[in-house]
Design a protein that fits this description.
By secondary structure, the chain is α+β, with helices and mostly antiparallel strands. The protein has helices spanning 26-34, 58-70, 72-83; strands at 3-12, 15-23, 48-55.
């Protein structure tokens, strides 16, 4: 089974908040976040997909998710690129 790691962005007042997660179905997971059924920290915002990476299995996706959560520079670059900075 393929698994994906993803980075979401939510923009408010010119600032971007990011969220990193993993899933086996990106579209379903993004819909869940936007319907308030995702992680608690994502509720009440409109989220957009900034980045997705296909990995071989759940373990690889979870490992990559952990790495990306700590990589604030990468997430900031994604947000700045999306905002056109």
């Amino acid at each position: 089974m393929d698994a994906f790691v993803y980075v979401l962005g939510s923009f408010e007042r010119g600032k971007c908040r990011t969220y990193v997660g993993w899933t086996d179905n990106i579209e379903r997971r993004l819909t869940a976040h936007n319907e308030g059924k995702g992680a608690r920290s994502t509720r009440g915002r409109v989220w957009f997909l900034l980045y997705a990476e296909k990995l071989g299995d759940r373990g690889a996706a979870m490992s990559r998710e952990s790495y990306l959560k700590r990589d604030r520079t990468f997430r900031k670059q994604l947000a700045d690129t999306t905002l056109g900075r």
